[in-house]
Write a structure and sequence with these properties.
The complex is a heterotrimer of chains A (383), B (395) and C (329). Chain A is an alpha/beta fold. Chain A is built from twelve helices and 13 strands. In chain A, 46% of the residues lie in helices and 17% in strands. Chain A is elongated, with a radius of gyration of 22 Å. Helix content of chain B is 64%, strand content 6%. In chain B, helix 6 runs antiparallel to helix 11. The radius of gyration of chain B is 22 Å and the shape is globular. Chain B starts with 14 loop residues before the first helix and ends in a 7-residue tail after the last helix. Chain C is mainly α and 329 residues long. Helices cover 73% and strands 4% of the residues of chain C. Chain C has 14 helices and four strands. In chain C, strands 1-4 form a two-stranded antiparallel ribbon. In chain C, 59% of the residues are buried. Classes of the chains: A alpha/beta (383), B mainly alpha (395), C mainly alpha (329). Chains in contact: A-B, A-C, B-C. At the B-C interface, helix 1, helix 7, helix 12, helix 14 and helix 16 of B face helix 4, helix 5, helix 10, helix 12 and helix 14 of C. Chain A: Keywords: Amino-acid transport, Signal, Transport. Chain A: Pfam families: Peripla_BP_6.
Amino acid sequence: MRFSVKTGAPLLAMALALTACGTSGGDDEPSANGGEAGSCEDIAIGYFGALTGAAANLGINIRNGVELAVQQFNEENPDCEVALEEYDSAGDPNQATGLATQAIGDEDVIGVVGPAFSGESDTAGPIFAEGELPTISASATNPALSENGWDTFHRILGNDASQGPAAATYIQDVLQSDSVFVVDDASAYGAGLAEIVEEDLGDAVVGTDTIQTGQTDFSATIAAIRDSGADAVFFGGYYAEAGLLVEQMRRGGVDATFVVADGVKDPGFIEAAGDAAEGTIITCPCLPPEESDEFFQAYEEAFGTAPATYSAEAYDAANVMLQGIAEGNTTRESLLEWINEYDGEGITKEVSFDETGEVQNISVWAYAVKDGEIVADQEIETD
Amino acid sequence: MTQGKASPETSPGVARSRAWGPRLGWDRGALARRVTRLPRSVKWALIGVLVVLLYALPLLELPIISTPDTDFGAVLFTVASYVLVALGLNIVLGYAGLLDLGYVGFYAVGAYTVAVLGSLQAQLSWWLLIPLAVIITTISGILLGAPTLRVRGDYLAIVTLGFGEIIRLTALNTEWLGAAKGITGVPRPPSVDLFELPHLEWEGATALIDLDDTTTFLSFGVADQAPYYWLALTVIFVVLGADRMMRLSRIGRAWEATREDEDAAELMGVPTFRFKLLAFATGAFIGGLSGALFASRQGFINPESFLLLLSILFLAAVVVGGAGNRYGVILGAIVVAYLPERFRGFEEWRLLVFGLALLLLANFRPQGLLPPRRARRAQAVDEQIDSMEEGKVRA
Amino acid sequence: MSFLIDNFVELTVTGLVLGAVYGLVALGYTLVYGVLQLINFAHSEVWMFGSFAAVWVTVAIGLAPGSALPAVVGVLLLALLAAMAMSGGIALLLERVAYRRLIRLDAPRLVALISAIGASFALAELMGLRDRVAGWFGLEDTLAPYVSSARDNTRFRNPLDTEGVFTVGGYTVSNVDLIIIISALLMMVALDQFIRRTRTGSGIRAVAQDSEAAALMGVNRARVIRATFLVGGVMAGAAALLYLMRFGVTRWNAGFLLGVKAFTAAVLGGIGNVRGALLGGFILGLAENYGSALVGSQWRDVVAFLLLVVILLFRPTGLLGESLGRARA
């Protein structure tokens, strides 16, 4: 008898724990969806991406952008409360499979902002297509994603193929540099972008190197940059490594102009690089935030931090869907149609999608770091 | 953390070795004896019910057990692939006593074989890919094992960890293997659409048959994960049978002898190196099989699916379950793969909760959830031998 | 190849700096391994907490860059003390929560590894969720400088400006480079002497050699184990500050990769061997730099691990052999 109690107790405890979190999970949904029964009862949009794991920082930026849009929408439309469902994939394609299946099985969810990364998009994309659940990614930039024939796929930012040439043009025409060192971070985003820049620059590339995400010591790369005598360095990757790289470059006495892309347009870059960030050129397929000061303030008020990489794109993406819901498109089918035909003013760009789901009329802007702030420099004209 | 009345009778010295046998082990004595006494026909019926229940799990949508925040079929497949990996690692670690921290490497080789030869560089048929994946992984196990298995104890852990990372980094930096972009369009198992199976829907404690929510039997599509789970479950049963046969054969005894005392085993005429290599290759075989299934379920793989962290989770599955006991490691794999998905209700706290759960399990079930029978029998003897010799891994 | 030769001095100095950090973190692995034959997987989190303590001290004091030297040295010393105290404290907490019960039960060593892995997950996540924890107490605004952007990089505002000291072979060695390499060597010597000469040190050696005989001779094993964790933690705290002076940022999950590298360094030098830890660190740091220069940075870890495999094949117990006090058979 004594044994059976001993073996039973942990099982019982586990069962209790599971029941407990089962009920708490169950409680969440009605409170999020329910409330006043309005004209658009039981409508939710999803956020799909990392909230935990190593890429959580980027994912949280995006989630916050979506959350802000939903909050504002619900304040303005108290009779049409839209809920936000979060699908935390940790950026992992494996977890994404189950979550995407879950999302298409949840009839309340009629649109999803995400998936955040290219890798998880590859596994979740076909599932969303099968469930006819429209998605708008605010951050996945692998050009191949729109070529899979998924009707539901959209992205609200330019892919690597649109941004890469702009970065190359800026380096050649504005910086007038003919010796460029290209570094990438071996991520799908960074390596893809660096490859395009490298191709476009052709002979001007005097050297290349590949670092790893999570790496902190770049002394070998910096020695190589100095050795090559390059007067510009292009880095394809995210702000965490970019900050460390430029800081160590400056400390190592390399004063080549540092050129990066939208994955670095984040206060975290300046946080990591400090004074070394000064003069960095950041290309971004997004309009300067003149009209969006309102967004900036609302975001800061809601989350206590400045909007960061992809927050504004996520806000735009969510608003495309929310406007559709306000217009009465409360099924997946009609919302998909709404998104496909959408043409409106977002805070990052004029939003409209072509038939593959790519955003049209992308204008790439160059931003520069001045006095610790990322400020607009000029629009990059590509032919 | 409170320990409660952890161990009043524990006093330093030899006395403790006898004291913690029954306390720490999962004493299956009572239950096992009762089951063994049942007539044969009842036993088979019980097993049959259990097997049917396992296959029916994705359709039953049981409350509490099902995951409310993610698709249960997908979780079941993930759990099944962890179970398969744990069975493989159990041979390496539990039977042969080799601490392998790079086991994810074999999982990766299996997955990459299917993806590279099935989509990126060639378009072989799925029926050919699975055996190829298994063969290539086994060969890679032998190639990696031959030099490294001469290293002993914890040194083996870091060497295997290194190889696991080398495999991932090679995939990440080699264009031919898809680099960081990964590989899309990995072939799925061929579908044979036979009939539709309805799912259940629960309202409180009453189950209703939901005819709108059905699974097509053996249609390996993108969204419905249940057929993949059935495939993996079937593979698990086959592997379990083979595992049992190996364990009871001369090979199993040789592994046990090698694990307990390598020098003594060698002296008694056991070619320990060859048996260690065999364990490594068998482990690689099963790991590669699991990886191959994973890739063909997923349809897409990239190097980030094979991080070092996964090796650590695999190891945790085996140890938490009870290294050396095949049913124990199955339970361990379920804990490690299922709990983080079930804990989604905790949102961003779930990994913290998972870490604490591992900590508690390790501290309050140090022998594993289901320790191998040998562990309990030989507890007292082991204790003394252990304090005399060091540098060996024990189940 | 010519690139390696042309930049040999730079690659060597920066490799040694990196190696010094690896070596100091490796000491924690090596000490615990020497005494308990356990891989203290959570040691990386001990280091990570120390790095945050150092950051928080500098945020609290808020010294402007370019301040007078005494102020700079004062702040750095305070940061060092805070990091050491934090890391030492976390190491003791680990010993209490993750290890003590298992050691007393003489549980299988792998279980202790899993216990440490669980503790490591929990500690890292706790740091990544510190804004939420502060939120429980309604302190997220008060503590904003310490807890905001919890999942993101946190910068260490080094009060000491990097300045070149002398130039060798085309590379200007900076004051920070010198401080890091020299402190690592000094701490190494101090630790070596501590283990050789003090009472606690001989206790550590005695338990490492033969735990039961030591107990019979009146050595308090539990106390020695605590001392071992504390010393390892304090060293990790020092490593945390040196790391921040060189690399400038930390993050909730920064410990994991560094921990793997430091453990590799410990094994390379001969795990359980205090001198081996620093030697292993230096060799690993150099190998990563030279390897990157020869075949590209993307292969640096591959080079490092291959080197490890080759060394272990020829010297199965690491370069200096595994010993905390004496060579083990």
